[in-house]
UniProtKB/TrEMBL annotation:
Pathway in which the depicted protein is active: Cell wall biogenesis; peptidoglycan biosynthesis
Modified residues annotated as 2-(S-cysteinyl)pyruvic acid O-phosphothioketal in this record: 115
Name listed for the protein in its UniProt record: UDP-N-acetylglucosamine 1-carboxyvinyltransferase
Stated family: Belongs to the EPSP synthase family. MurA subfamily.
Keywords of the record: Cell cycle, Cell division, Cell shape, Cell wall biogenesis/degradation, Cytoplasm, Peptidoglycan synthesis, Pyruvate, Transferase
Any single Gene Ontology cellular-component annotation: cytoplasm
Protein's organism: Pseudodesulfovibrio senegalensis
């Protein structure tokens, strides 16, 4: 396994470019199962989860290729089984369930794995698909699904689930009649999936709102499509400029989709300016602690919670973060404490008292965004920080050490 070495204390300066969105690319790749004809995707990030998704598509009966940041897929002979060996490493694998039922009328999908940040059950996916005519059995760690042609339905989610909304959007695109999804997730990545499905011939309206309407069609065709840039990666680099006292141009930054993040950063004393092809970011004086509550989009994203906590660790005064999405997403707190952070946990709230200086230490990543918070803290700390178990980081950040090195960070990868 690899580890990252960070020698902190260097303000970052220069231009850093955001890669394509992992959380948009994964459902879009699964949606390729619906296409009759070749699909060409650009701006696809080179990440472990992307390679896993492409291997899963190969097993399910697609011919795929991946070169540079371009991926192609063409369905040849669909198979209904998504095996545990692949699904256990990546929760997004369950997104093949809706497309398989829509195309084949059957699916055998292993219950998913992924980061250990909370339960994230798939029951909302199954309840919605049952409303559309599917029947399920859970046995030996697999979801067994059967259906005829799925039928449109009026479905109201108990909670605006991103994965559930995506699975049902894909299934409804080939269902008979109209499907209405209420209390649907509004995340930009859901909108990107809907736009991709429409590019293949689907009839979806209401993107970006809590009510999505889908008129089912007989078939979807291949197309070319560019995946949106990654708003969480972009937010991470905005924090990197602030925590190091530097100034960055963050190119290909989906700034409109970062409203909640930019609002809090400005409240903390970070200067942000949107320009033609980048966002300029730098701190203005001493960073201040703030209070944050994670919420579904358009609220503050849970995927930026750990990064903002790292920034609060070196802020002036006290701030708090209340985590309302996942029940087990403060595993980075004890590792930040090893660097000298002063954080107190009270249930789902972390109270952060800023310190003058973090000090490098050996730390261990527990999940994807926790990894990013440790990199950010290491950039701000004096001395040397060693971050182990960075395979989590490789699931969500394309070449992060190369990008940060390019703007002045002293960061490199070594074998454990």
């Amino acid at each position: 396994m690899d580890k990252l070495i960070v020698e902190g204390g260097v303000p970052l300066h220069g231009r850093i470019t955001v890669s394509g969105s992992k959380n948009a690319a994964l459902p879009i790749l699964m949606a390729c199962l619906l296409a009759e004809g070749p699909v060409a995707l650009s701006n696809v990030p080179r990440l472990r989860d992307i390679h896993t998704s492409l291997r899963l598509l190969d097993i399910l009966g697609c011919e795929t290729e991946f070169s540079g940041n371009e991926a192609t897929s063409c369905v040849t002979n669909l198979s209904p089984e998504a095996p545990y060996d692949l699904v256990k490493t990546m929760r997004a694998s369950v997104l093949c369930l809706g497309p398989l039922l829509a195309r084949l009328g059957e699916a055998r999908v292993a219950l998913p794995g992924g980061c250990a940040i909370g339960a994230r059950p798939v029951d909302l996916h199954l309840k919605g698909l049952e409303r559309m005519g599917a029947e399920f059995e859970l046995t030996e760690g697999y979801i067994l699904g059967k259906s005829g042609r799925l039928k449109g339905a009026h479905i109201t989610f108990d909670f605006p689930t991103v994965g559930g909304t995506e699975n049902l959007l894909m299934a409804a695109s080939l269902a008979e009649g109209e499907t209405i999804l209420e209390n649907a997730a509004r995340e930009p990545e859901v909108t990107d999936l809907a736009n991709f499905l429409n590019a293949m011939g689907a009839k979806i309206t209401g993107q970006g709102t809590s009510v999505l309407r889908v008129q089912g069609v007989e078939k979807l065709t291949g197309c070319s499509y560019r995946v949106m840039p990654d708003r969480i990666e972009a937010g991470t680099y905005l924090v990197a400029a602030a925590i190091t006292g530097g100034e960055l141009e963050v190119a290909d930054c989906p700034f409109q989709e970062l409203d909640a993040v930019s609002y809090k950063l400005r409240e903390m004393g970070v200067w942000l300016e949107e320009r033609d092809d980048h966002v300029l970011v730098r701190p203005e004086g001493r960073i201040r602690g703030v209070d944050v509550v994670t919420q579904p989009y358009p609220g503050f994203p849970t995927d930026m919670q750990a990064q903002l906590m790292a920034l609060m660790c070196v802020a002036d005064g006290t701030g708090s973060i209340e985590e309302k999405i996942f029940e087990n997403r403060f595993m980075h707190v004890q590792e930040l404490a090893r660097l000298g952070a002063n954080i107190t946990l009270k249930g789902r709230m972390g109270i952060v008292r800023g310190v003058d200086q973090l000090v490098g230490a050996q730390v261990m990543a527990s999940d994807l965004r926790a990894s990013a918070s440790l990199v950010l803290a290491g950039l701000a700390a004096s001395g040397r920080t060693e971050i182990s178990r960075i395979y989590h980081l490789d699931r969500g950040y394309e070449g992060i050490e190369d990008k940060l090195s390019g703007v002045g960070a002293r960061i490199w990868r070594e074998k454990e």
